[in-house]
Specification:
The structure holds three protein chains of three kinds. By secondary structure, chain A is an alpha/beta fold. Chain A contains 19 helices and 16 strands. Helix content of chain A is 33%, strand content 13%. Chain B is globular, with a radius of gyration of 26 Å. Chain C is an alpha+beta fold. In chain C, helix 2 (40-79) packs across helix 4 (102-112). In chain C, 32% of the residues are buried. Classes of the chains: A alpha/beta, B alpha/beta, C alpha+beta. Chains in contact: A-B, A-C, B-C.
Chain lengths: 593, 656, 222
C-alpha cells in the first residue's frame, strides 16, 4: 500500500515493451498506468483512479518475461527493458478463476441492488462472460447497517477491496470504517462491532462514492419524493445545489464539466415541482450573514477568530465530535440548504399566500450528509416545521429523471423561480473548494470598505491542493485565510491555531474554509461515480466558468437577496436573521459506547 | 558486569570451557520443562549436597533429543560423560546414588549415538547394549546378562559394568554394543560373539572388524553447537564457551565488506525457507544510502511441527544476538529487533535477559568494544498470526498494524520498517553467522552440496520413533535422516511419506526418500525446504486428511487481504472437506487444480502462493487415494478416517 | 490467563441495589396495568430518587474511569518512547486482565493518540488477543502437525465433551475457556497442551479429564 519507490540510479524515462509494443514512461510509473499508453486497460477491481493501490483483488496480474510469478500491474513500477504480457491464455485463465472466487462469496441479487447497472463487479462478470457457478456460492447473511440514514452498508456485498477504509482513514481521517478479523472472516465494519451511528462517521459518503459494488450505497429516498409529488395536498418546491449541475451530465454519459443548469430546471419542473429554487441564491444569502459575521469579529473584535465556515454538515459533525475546542470559532450561519428551506416556509409562503404546513421542500445535493443535516438540531425547525423535508443526492436525482421517462439531454433550457432562484457567480462558487472563501472575501471587502475588489478573482484560494493559504489586503489590513478540503487536511491547519492559542500569539489565520470532501462539494459523496483528480478539476473549472459567465458576481449585489432583507429579515445578523438563519453547536465526543 | 574490552574477550577464548570435573547438566527448554525437567533439576540441586564432593548442577539448553526429554548429561571424574534420557524423579535419585556416588550407570536411560569411534583408546569401563531390531522379542536383557556372565568368567566383573541403553542411534541392526569411554560400536552381535568380544576387545583392546559399525555420525552441530552445553542464562559460561568471539574478530579490523565477503564464501542461504543468499541480502541493504537502517531477527516460527528456532533462542540466545550484531555491522544498521512469537515465553525471557547482559557488558549500545560501531536491539512480540513470518507482514506487525503483507517492490531492503532499509534474517541463519566468522566461510562451505552449502537443523516429528532436532549438512538424504538418525517409523510400520516445509511444502513419497536434501531438490519434487519441519507419515495416515489439515491451517492463518488466498483457500477447503467426507463431486479435482493455480499466481504473499502446495503434492503422488475417496464415497471415507484403509493404497506415483 | 492476585469480593450493597431496582420496576408495571397510567405524585417521587441515584452512578463511573485511566497512563508512560509498541501494550493488558476490555482499549486510544478503529483492527486480527472475559481456567490444545498426527483431535473431542464447550469459547459459568492453538513448539512431546500456563506433553485422550480435575481441585503435592 506504499507509493512506488524510485531506485536512485534509474533513468528519468524508462523504456519497456508491453505486448510487444514499445512504451516509454517516467520512472515510477506503474505497469497499469504505462499500459494505457498503448490502449491497454488491464482489468482491475480494487484499484481506483482516485486512491493508492491496495493490491487486494489480484485481477490486474501480468506476466513479465524472466519472472516466475504474476505481479500486480497496479502497484509494480516499470523497470528498464521489462517485457510484459498483459493478455495470455494463462493470464486470462487465472483472472477468470480469481473473478469466480470473488463471485462465489458475493450475493446474486443484482436485480434488486443499489448498484444495478453501475457495479464494477457486475461489469467484470459481464466482460468475462461468466455463465454459471463453477465454484459453490457461500454467502453468510449479515444484517445491513442503515443506522445513520445517509448511507447504508450491506456487508454481504463487500469485496474487501479496501477503498472505503482507505478513504475513511487516510483521506478523511475519520476512522469510522476498518477491517476487522482476518482470513475468510475479514469484514469491513466500524471499530468493535458498533453501528455506524455510534461510530465517528460524519456521513460524508466518500465511502459510497468509491465503493465498487453495492456494499455501500446512499440511502435512496426517491419513493418519498414521488409520494410527495403525487400528494395533491402538498405544494412541492425544490432547490438545487451548485455542484450538482456540473456533474449530473456524467450520469447520462456526458463528460465531466458540462453545465446543465437549464436542463435541470426543466427536468425538475416536468417532474412536478411547483417551484424551482436555487441553492446558489441562499449561498449568496449565507455570504451576507457570514461576511457580516466576519466583519463583526475581525473589525469590531466581537467574537472569536479565526472564523470557520460551517456550511458543510460533515465538517460540523466532525468538529463537534473531534475538534470541539473550536465551537466558538464556527460561523453560526446555517448552510444554504437550510436557509432556503426556512425561507421557503416563511418568506415564500407569506408572499405566495400559502399554508407553510403544506409546503414540501426537497433539495438536490451532491452530498449524503445533507440528509443528516435536515434534523441536526432544533434550529432546523425554525420555520415552525421541518425546514427542509428531504435531501436527495445527485445519483438519486438521475434515477428520478430516468424513472419519469424524461429525455434529459434533449430538454430545452428552463429557468428558476424568482424570489428564491436568482444568484450571482459568488453563490455558484460554493460548490468548489475555496469558493465559499472567495465569495465571502468579495463581500467582506465591500462591507468593510464600501467598494468592490479590483480583481474579484481570489487566486490563492483556488485549486485542488489540500491546504491553500492566502493573504488579502482589505484597506491596508492583511486578512490571512486558509482553505482545507478532505478532512485529513484539517488537523494541520487547526493545530497551527491551537499552537498560537497556547502561546498567546495572534492566530495564524483569520478566516478558515473547510469542506469535508476532496475538491469541495463537486467531489461530494452523492455525486456520480468515477471521480478522480481530473474529474474534479473539470467539474471545478465548469463552476469557475459559470461564475465568469454570470452578470452579477458579488453576493451583496443579488437583487433577490436585497429584497429578502428589505421585505423580511431587516439586515444581516438582525434578530430575525438570527432566529431563522443561524444555528448552534454542541460538543459530542465520539464513541458513546 | 563491567564493560568488556577486547583483551577480556581474548582471555575467554583461551579459557578451558569445561571447567569442573563433576557436573550435571539438565536440558531446560520448554519441551524439557513440559516433561518434568524442572522437578528433576530441583531433586539434583537438593541432592548433591549429600554427596560429599562438589557437583555443579546446571540448567542448560536443549540437546535436541526431544523424544527422550527430560535429558540429563553427567560428568563424573574418572567416568565417561553420559547422557541420560527419560529421567523422571526416580531416575534422578538413582543418578545421584548410583551414578555419582556409586559410579554405576543406570539401565534403560543411557543415550549414546553421536561421535562413535573406530578404535579403542583406553580400557573399557562400561559396555552399553541394546537390541535394535524391530522384530518381536527384545534380546537386550539376555545379552546384558550373557555379557556380564562372560566378564565374570574372565574376572572382569568389577572393572566393567554392562548397561542396557535407552537408545544408541543405531536401528534395525540387531543387537548393538558400545564400549565406553572409547565409543567403539558393534552391531548385529550374536550370542556366539560374546566370548570373542570380551577376549579381543575388552581384554585385548582390539577392534573386531566384522562387527564394527562404521557408519559415521551424520550430524554436524553448527547452529546447535552450544545448545545443551551451558546455562544460557549464565553470561560468564556463554563467554567461556566462545560466544562473541565472532564479534571480536569482526570488530577488530574487519570492514563490513569483508564480513559480507566471508558470508559469500560460506554460501549461507536464508534458513527461514526462502533460501535467499544471506550475503546478497546484506549487500543490497548495505547499498541503500538511507539511515537509520534496521536489522530484524525473525523468530516467528509458526510452522506447525517446527521448533528449531525456539530451541536455539532458548538454548543459545547470545549466539543469535551475536549474529544480529554482526549482521547490523555488515549492513550499517543501528537498531535491531527480535520478533518472537508470543507462544514462546521462555525464549522471549531468555533473549531479553541476553540483551540486558550484553548491554551491561558493552556488547550492545554505544561504541561496542571501542570500535565506534553502535547498535542496540529490542524484543517485539508476535500475537498469534502465522502470516507475520512473512517479511512485509512482520514489519506491519512491529509498526502496530494488521499483519497484512504489502506488495513488493519496494523490498524491505529498500523501504522496510518505518519506511527505512531493513534486512530480516531467520534465527538459524543468524546463529550460524558467528561460527562462520570464527572458523571461516571456507570451513562452512565444506559442508553441503553445490548450491546448498552448510548445515540445516530439521525438526523430525510425527510417526517417527525418535522425534528430535537433527542438524545435518545439506545433501544428506531423507532416508538417512528418518531411518539412520531418527530410528525409522514408530511401531515399525511402513513409511508412506515425509512432509517437508510445513504448510508451504509437500509430501515426498517413500520411493523418493533417497533424495539428497537441498533447496533445489525439494523444489523439484514439489515441496520446499521451508524452515525445516519434517513430518513422518505411515500407512495409516490419509493423504487427503493431511492435505486438508494443512489447508485448514492456511485458511485459519490467511490475513484475508487478497481475494485469491482468502477466498481460494476457503473454497479449496470446502471442496476437500466434502471429498474427505466421501461426498466429492464431479470435477472437484479439476476445481482444486484451477483454484490452486490462481492462488499460486495471484496471491499477494508467500502464504497464499504456497498454500496449495500440500494439496498439489498429495495429488501428484497420491492421486489414486483421492480418486478412491471420490469413487468409494462415504463408506471409504469413514474407514480412512478411522485410520484403517479399506485396501492398501498404491504408493506408486501418478502421472506427475 | 487469569490474573494471579486475589480478587476482592463484590460489595454486598451492589447486589442489594440490583434487586431494589427490579422490584421498583415491577411495582410500577403493576400500577400501570391496574390504573392505565402512573400517577404524577408517584412519578415525581421516583424521578427525585432516580436523580440522586444517577448522580451517585456518575461518581462511580468517574472512579472506575479514573482507575482505568491510571492503569493506561502507567502503561503508556512505560512505552511511549518506543516505536512499534502498540502490540506490546496490548499484550500487557491481555496478560493483566485475560482479555482487552473495551473501556481500556478506548482509554489507550485516547492516551496514545491511536484511533480506536486501528486498535480494533489489530485486536481482531491477532488471535492472541481476546475481546471477552476469559474463564478462570484456560486449556489450549495444540493442533500442530505432529500433535495432529499423534491424536490431538481425539483429545480435543474429549475436552469439548467434558467441558461442554466449543473451541474458542468459554463455559457459561466462566470456569473454563477452551482454545485451539497452532504449534507451541513442543513437537517432540506431541500431543501437547497448555493448561493455565503450564505445558503438558505426551498426552492422550484419557489425560484430559484428569488434567481438568487436577486443575479445578489442585492437590497438595503435584
Amino acid at each position: 500500500m506504499v507509493a512506488t519507490a524510485t531506485p536512485p540510479a534509474a533513468p528519468a524515462i524508462v523504456n519497456l515493451k508491453i505486448n510487444g509494443m514499445p512504451v516509454s514512461v517516467p520512472a515510477g510509473t506503474t505497469i497499469l498506468e504505462a499500459a494505457r499508453q498503448v490502449q491497454v486497460k488491464i482489468p482491475t477491481l480494487c484499484k481506483n483512479d482516485d486512491l493508492l493501490p491496495t493490491a487486494a483483488c489480484g485481477l490486474c496480474i501480468v506476466q513479465i518475461a524472466g519472472q516466475p510469478r504474476m505481479p500486480r500491474a497496479c502497484c509494480t513500477p516499470v523497470a528498464e527493458g521489462m517485457d510484459i504480457t498483459t493478455n495470455s491464455g494463462e493470464l486470462t485463465e487465472v483472472r477468470r478463476t480469481v473473478l469466480e472466487l470473488l463471485l462465489s462469496t458475493h450475493p446474486s441479487s443484482c436485480l434488486t441492488c443499489g448498484r444495478n447497472g453501475t457495479c464494477e463487479l457486475q461489469a467484470l462478470a459481464a466482460d468475462f462472460g461468466i455463465r454459471g457457478e463453477n465454484i459453490k456460492r457461500v454467502v453468510t447473511p449479515v444484517a445491513p447497517d442503515a443506522s445513520n440514514g445517509s448511507i447504508i452498508i450491506d456487508f454481504t456485498k463487500c469485496v474487501k477491496c479496501g477503498r472505503c477504509v482507505q478513504v475513511c482513514q487516510e483521506v478523511q481521517d475519520v476512522w469510522a470504517l476498518s477491517f476487522l478479523d482476518r482470513g475468510i472472516n475479514t469484514r469491513m465494519a466500524p471499530a468493535g462491532d458498533i453501528t455506524l451511528a455510534e461510530s465517528p462517521c460524519v456521513k460524508c459518503g466518500q465511502c459510497s462514492n468509491h465503493c465498487p459494488t453495492g456494499a455501500i450505497v446512499e440511502n435512496d429516498e426517491t419513493p418519498a419524493v414521488w409520494a410527495a409529488l403525487h400528494d395533491s395536498s402538498k405544494h412541492c418546491v425544490v432547490q438545487i445545489a451548485p455542484a450538482v449541475r456540473v456533474a449530473i451530465g456524467e450520469a447520462f454519459g456526458l463528460p465531466p464539466g458540462a453545465n446543465l443548469t437549464g436542463k435541470l430546471y426543466t427536468a425538475l419542473r416536468r417532474l412536478g415541482f411547483k417551484a424551482i429554487f436555487d441553492t446558489n441564491f441562499s449561498a449568496d444569502l449565507t455570504i451576507m450573514e457570514e461576511a457580516s459575521e466576519f466583519v463583526e469579529r475581525f473589525v469590531h473584535k466581537r467574537g472569536q477568530l479565526p472564523l470557520i465556515t460551517s456550511c458543510c454538515p460533515s465538517w460540523t459533525d466532525f468538529m463537534e465530535k473531534t475538534h470541539y475546542d473550536f465551537i466558538d470559532n464556527f460561523s453560526t450561519a446555517k448552510s444554504p440548504q437550510q436557509m432556503l428551506g426556512v425561507l421557503a416556509k416563511t418568506y415564500y409562503a407569506k408572499k405566495q399566500g400559502l399554508d407553510p404546513a403544506k409546503i414540501y421542500v426537497a433539495s438536490i445535493m451532491p452530498c449524503t450528509a445533507k440528509k443528516y443535516e435536515l434534523e441536526r438540531t432544533n434550529e432546523m425547525y425554525a420555520s415552525g416545521y421541518i425546514d427542509v423535508d428531504l435531501a436527495l443526492t445527485t445519483r438519486e436525482l438521475a434515477r428520478l429523471i430516468k424513472q419519469a421517462g424524461i429525455d434529459f439531454l434533449n430538454l430545452p433550457e428552463g429557468t428558476a423561480d424568482s424570489i428564491l432562484g436568482d444568484y450571482t457567480g459568488a453563490g455558484a462558487l460554493f460548490g468548489v473548494t475555496g469558493g465559499v472563501m472567495e465569495a465571502a472575501i468579495r463581500t467582506a471587502y465591500f462591507l468593510v470598505t464600501g467598494k468592490n475588489l479590483q480583481t474579484i478573482d481570489v487566486e490563492p484560494v483556488r485549486g485542488l491542493d489540500g491546504v491553500k493559504e492566502g493573504e488579502i489586503s482589505i484597506d491596508g489590513t492583511v486578512v490571512r485565510v486558509a482553505v482545507a478540503h478532505g478532512l485529513a487536511n484539517v488537523e494541520s491547519v487547526l493545530d497551527k491555531v491551537r499552537a498560537a492559542r497556547g502561546t498567546g500569539e495572534q492566530p495564524p489565520y483569520h478566516f478558515i474554509e473547510v469542506m469535508a470532501c476532496p475538491g469541495g462539494c463537486i467531489g461530494g459523496g452523492g455525486q456520480p461515480y468515477g471521480v478522480n483528480g481530473a474529474v474534479r478539476a473539470k467539474r471545478a473549472a465548469a463552476l469557475y466558468q459559470h461564475d465568469r459567465d454570470r452578470a452579477l458576481r458579488l453576493s451583496h449585489e443579488n437583487p433577490e437577496v436585497k429584497r429578502v432583507y428589505e421585505e423580511f429579515l431587516g439586515h444581516p445578523l438582525s434578530h430575525k436573521a438570527h432566529e431563522l438563519l443561524h444555528t448552534r453547536y454542541t460538543a459530542r465526543p465520539t464513541y458513546k459506547r | 558486569m563491567n564493560k568488556l574490552k577486547f583483551t577480556d574477550l581474548e582471555k575467554y577464548s583461551k579459557t578451558m570451557a569445561d571447567s569442573g570435573l563433576n557436573w550435571i547438566r539438565v536440558s531446560m527448554d520448554t519441551g524439557g520443562i513440559a516433561a518434568g525437567a524442572d522437578t528433576v533439576c530441583t531433586i539434583f540441586e537438593k541432592g548433591v549436597g549429600t554427596l560429599g564432593f562438589g557437583v555443579e548442577v546446571r540448567r542448560v539448553g536443549s540437546l535436541g533429543y526431544s523424544f527422550a526429554d527430560p535429558l540429563v548429561e553427567i560428568a563424573r571424574e574418572g567416568m565417561p560423560r553420559i547422557v541420560y534420557g527419560h529421567v523422571d524423579d526416580n531416575a534422578a535419585r538413582e543418578i545421584l546414588e548410583q551414578h555419582l556416588a556409586g559410579r554405576r550407570l543406570l539401565d534403560d536411560h543411557v543415550l549414546a549415538w553421536r561421535n562413535r569411534s573406530l578404535a579403542f583408546d583406553g580400557p573399557t569401563t562400561y559396555i552399553l547394549v541394546k537390541d535394535t531390531s524391530t522384530e518381536k522379542g527384545d534380546k537386550t536383557q539376555f545379552f546384558q546378562f550373557s555379557l556380564a556372565e562372560e566378564l565374570k568368567r574372565c574376572n572382569l566383573q568389577d572393572k566393567v559394568q554392562v548397561v542396557r541403553a535407552l537408545d544408541m542411534g543405531v536401528y534395525d541392526e540387531g543387537v548393538a554394543v558400545q564400549f565406553l569411554p572409547s565409543k567403539v560400536t558393534y552391531t548385529n552381535v550374536l550370542a556366539p560373539d560374546i566370548a570373542r568380544i570380551v577376549k579381543t576387545s575388552v581384554q585385548g583392546k582390539k577392534v573386531i572388524d566384522d562387527l564394527l559399525y562404521k557408519k559415521p555420525d551424520k550430524q554436524v552441530r553448527v547452529v546447535m553447537r552450544n545448545c545443551g552445553k551451558f546455562d544460557p542464562e549464565n553470561f560468564q559460561d556463554c563467554l567461556r564457551y566462545g560466544v562473541y568471539q565472532g564479534l571480536v574478530r569482526v570488530l577488530s579490523g574487519m570492514k563490513p565488506e569483508d564480513v559480507i565477503a566471508e558470508l559469500k564464501t560460506s554460501g549461507l542461504r536464508g534458513r527461514g525457507g526462502a533460501g535467499f543468499p544471506t550475503w546478497l541480502k546484506w549487500q543490497i541493504t548495505r547499498a541503500v544510502q538511507r539511515t537509520p537502517k534496521y536489522i530484524i531477527c525473525n523468530g516467528d516460527e509458526g510452522d506447525p511441527g517446527a521448533y528449531m528456532d525456539r530451541s536455539v533462542l532458548e538454548g543459545d540466545p547470545h549466539s543469535v544476538l551475536e549474529g544480529l550484531i554482526i549482521a547490523a555491522y555488515a549492513i550499517g544498521a543501528t537498531r535491531g529487533y527480535f520478533y518472537i512469537r508470543a507462544e514462546y515465553p521462555l525464549a522471549v525471557r531468555r533473549v531479553e535477559k541476553a540483551i540486558v547482559e550484553a548491554r551491561a557488558a558493552g556488547l550492545l549500545g554505544e561504541n561496542i568494544l571501542g570500535s565506534g560501531f553502535s547498535f542496540d536491539a529490542k524484543v517485539r512480540l508476535g500475537a498469534g498470526a502465522f502470516v507475520c513470518g512473512e517479511e512485509t507482514a512482520l514489519i506491519a506487525s512491529i509498526e502496530g498494524k494488521r499483519g497484512s503483507p504489502s506488495p513488493r517492490p519496494p523490498y524491505p531492503s529498500e523501504r522496510g520498517l518505518f519506511g527505512q532499509p531493513t534486512a530480516i534474517n531467520n534465527v538459524e541463519t543468524l546463529a550460524a553467522v558467528p561460527a562462520i566468522l570464527v572458523r571461516g566461510g571456507a570451513w562452512y562451505s565444506e559442508f553441503g552440496a553445490e548450491k546448498s552449502r552448510g548445515t540445516k537443523v530439521f525438526a523430525v516429528t510425527g510417526k517417527v520413533r525418535n522425534p528430535q532436532l537433527v542438524e545435518v549438512p545439506l545433501g544428506v538424504t531423507l532416508r538417512d535422516i528418518v531411518f539412520d538418525i531418527c530410528g525409522g517409523v514408530l511401531g515399525g510400520k511402513a513409511i508412506k511419506a515425509v512432509q517437508t516445509g510445513g504448510p508451504s511444502g509437500g509430501v515426498i513419497p517413500e520411493h523418493l526418500l533417497n533424495t539428497k536434501v537441498s533447496y533445489e531438490s525439494l523444489q523439484e519434487l514439489g515441496s520446499i525446504m521451508g524452515s525445516g519441519g519434517m513430518i513422518v507419515m505411515d500407512q495409516d495416515d490419509s493423504m487427503v486428511e493431511v492435505s486438508r489439515f494443512y489447508l485448514r491451517f492456511c485458511v485459519d492463518e490467511s490475513c484475508g487481504k487478497c481475494a485469491p488466498c482468502r477466498i481460494g483457500g476457503y473454497q479449496m477447503l470446502q471442496i476437500l472437506n466434502r471429498v474427505a467426507r466421501g461426498r466429492g463431486e464431479k470435477g472437484d479435482l479439476d476445481r482444486l487444480r484451477a483454484i490452486s493455480k490462481a492462488m499460486q499466481k495471484a496471491s499477494l504473499c508467500g502464504l497464499g502462493q504456497t498454500a496449495p502446495n500440500p494439496v498439489l503434492s498429495a495429488l501428484r503422488y497420491f492421486e489414486p487415494e483421492f480418486k478412491a475417496y471420490l469413487e468409494g464415497g462415504v463408506s471409504y471415507a469413514r474407514k480412512m478416517s478411522a485410520g484403517r484403509p479399506a485396501e492398501p493404497v498404491a504408493a506408486e506415483p501418478a502421472n506427475a | 490467563m487469569p490474573p494471579e492476585t486475589v480478587q476482592p469480593e463484590l460489595p454486598n450493597q451492589l447486589n442489594a441495589w440490583k434487586d431494589d431496582e427490579a422490584a421498583l420496576l415491577e411495582s410500577l408495571e403493576q400500577i400501570e396495568q391496574k390504573h392505565g397510567f402512573i400517577p404524577r405524585h408517584i412519578a415525581e417521587e421516583i424521578s427525585r430518587v432516580l436523580e440522586v441515584k444517577l448522580d451517585r452512578l456518575r461518581k462511580l463511573q468517574t472512579k472506575v474511569e479514573s482507575n482505568v485511566r491510571k492503569e493506561v497512563d502507567a502503561l503508556v508512560a512505560k512505552w511511549k518512547d518506543e516505536e512499534g509498541s502498540l502490540i506490546l501494550i496490548l499484550h500487557e493488558i491481555e496478560n493483566q486482565h485475560g482479555y482487552v476490555p473495551r473501556e481500556i482499549a478506548m482509554e489507550v486510544s485516547h492516551a496514545l493518540g491511536v484511533k480506536l478503529a486501528r486498535i480494533y483492527e489489530v485486536l481482531t486480527f491477532y488471535h492472541y488477543f481476546k475481546l471477552k472475559p476469559p474463564g478462570r481456567h484456560n486449556m489450549a490444545i495444540c493442533l500442530g502437525t505432529a500433535c495432529y498426527l499423534k491424536g490431538a483431535p481425539a483429545m480435543l473431542a474429549e475436552a469439548k465433551m467434558h467441558l461442554k464447550v466449543e473451541e474458542g469459547c468459554t463455559t457459561p459459568d466462566r470456569e473454563w475457556h477452551l482454545d485451539v492453538v497452532r504449534c507451541i513448539g513442543c513437537c517432540g512431546m506431541s500431543p501437547a497442551m497448555v493448561v493455565d500456563g503450564k505445558t503438558y506433553g505426551r498426552l492422550n485422550a484419557t489425560d484430559v479429564p484428569r488434567l481438568i480435575a487436577q486443575t479445578t481441585q489442585p492437590k497438595a503435592s503435584s
